[in-house]
Write a structure and sequence with these properties.
- The protein is mainly alpha-helical and 401 residues long.
- The protein has one domain.
- 43% of the residues lie in helices and 3% in strands.
- It has ten helices and six strands.
- Strands 1-2 form a two-stranded antiparallel sheet.
- The chain is globular and about 55 Å long.
Length: 401
């Protein structure tokens, strides 16, 4: 993926950009969305095509601006979910010493929860407020090296596998690839627990927990793997991908610039009980009645947003052609409908964690819509964080058949 240019007048961190890790980068689609017939393998794409950690650049990104200077950012980490096609993501992290437990883009403190005392090592335990665009998160920094490591370990041939091939048909070489990736995912899940505890945001913790739960579930499935188990890997990678995009939006300041403009959500009537992230549970343990409609909404969005998704996200609004302006104007109604659908389905699910993920997808899409009149390339991370979060739910549904 080609990173957006740094803000005017800024300079990248020392060292400059690096060559792509593992080869040529795929072309970037608008909003950071994959060039697919539907996110998460939807709308015409093969739903069983394998996810993979994309061979992609590990290059530095501009840190957040402070006064007249720049503080350091961690280098990027690329992660991808290939579900029908390939998409690349780069994680950028701002080194901001906040972590005050704020639960919203405006910095409001979280509502106090009685569960907080029982989970004093979980920074988000007291966050019971509405989901909002995340403008800073200390866990981004701790996540970066962990995802770099698992990306490197999983480029062993597994990314080229045929997910339709059950374990009973594997050659010794293929079995070895699966087992190595399963072990890498299991170890990464264990390492991500610390980041899940560190984030002050409930919904970010829930994304970490979904990576942990589905990465472990996929690793557990490998001895008797069948094609449906591929969706476990897709769910895990989608969660990690969403986290990466959220951190990129922080690092490029699009979250801080646009997040406060998204209409605030009401206080939730209920939040999921706080549990030790080391014991993370899958988003869905049984089919949820909203799954077919979630699937349909994502297919509809993929189809109706196709012209917009074909646009380059690296062109600022000041350089849009009349055709690009027309396409963007037309996709606004498509995005608003998609938000309405996901918001309603999240509420109907009667699953507080699923509702949080629906709200997160909606908030990032709302922030993107607010950005359009003055769009810059950094704003693409808002749109891609939204679709990746929605894809976590889609894959969780598909993993149940």
């Amino acid at each position: 993926m080609t990173l957006p240019p740094p803000p005017s007048g800024s300079v990248p961190p020392a060292g400059g950009s690096q060559q792509p890790h593992g080869g040529q980068q795929p072309p970037q689609q608008h909003g950071g969305q994959p060039p697919f017939g539907g996110p998460g393998g939807y709308s015409g794409a093969n739903p069983n095509q394998p996810p993979a950690w994309q061979q992609a650049p590990l290059q530095p990104v501009p840190p957040r601006k402070r006064g007249n200077g720049w503080k350091w950012a961690l280098g990027g980490v690329a992660l991808v979910a290939v579900v029908g096609v390939t998409a690349t993501v780069t994680l950028s992290v701002a080194n901001k010493g906040g972590g005050d437990g704020s639960s919203s883009a405006t910095g409001a403190p979280p509502t106090t929860s009685v569960s907080g005392a029982a989970h004093s090592d979980i920074a988000s335990a007291n966050d019971t407020g509405p989901v909002a665009v995340i403008t800073e998160d200390p866990s981004c920094a701790t996540t970066d090296p962990v995802l770099v490591a698992v990306q490197n370990r999983s480029n062993n041939g597994w990314e080229k596998r045929d997910p339709e091939l059950p374990a009973t048909a594997w050659s010794p070489e293929i079995r070895g690839q699966y087992e190595a990736v399963g072990q890498a995912l299991r170890e990464t899940a264990d390492q991500i627990v610390a980041s899940a505890k560190l984030t002050p945001h409930r919904v970010m913790r829930e994304l970490y927990e979904q990576f942990i739960a589905y990465a472990r579930a996929y690793a557990d499935s490998i001895p008797s793997y069948t094609p449906i188990d591929n969706h476990l890997a897709v769910a895990a990678i989608s969660a990690a991908d969403a986290i990466s995009r959220i951190c990129s939006a922080i690092g490029f300041d699009s979250a801080a610039a646009r997040g406060p403009l998204a209409p605030a959500l009401p206080e939730p009537s209920e939040v999921a009980p706080v549990r030790d992230p080391a014991d993370a549970q899958r988003l869905l343990s049984e089919p949820n009645s909203i799954c077919p409609e979630w699937d349909s909404a994502m297919k509809q969005f993929a189809t109706n947003s196709e012209p917009w998704r074909a646009m380059s996200p690296d062109i600022p609004v000041t350089e849009w052609s009349p055709e690009q302006r027309r396409v963007t104007d037309e996709v606004v109604a498509v995005m608003k409908l998609f938000n309405t659908q996901l918001s309603a389905l999240g509420r109907r699910s009667e699953n507080p964690a699923l509702r949080d993920l629906a709200d997160l997808a909606v908030q990032y899409r709302e922030a993107y819509l607010q950005a359009l009149p003055t769009y810059t390339p950094a704003d693409k991370y808002l749109a891609s964080a939204s679709i990746r979060t929605a894809s976590v739910v889609a894959s969780a549904c598909r993993a149940l058949g």
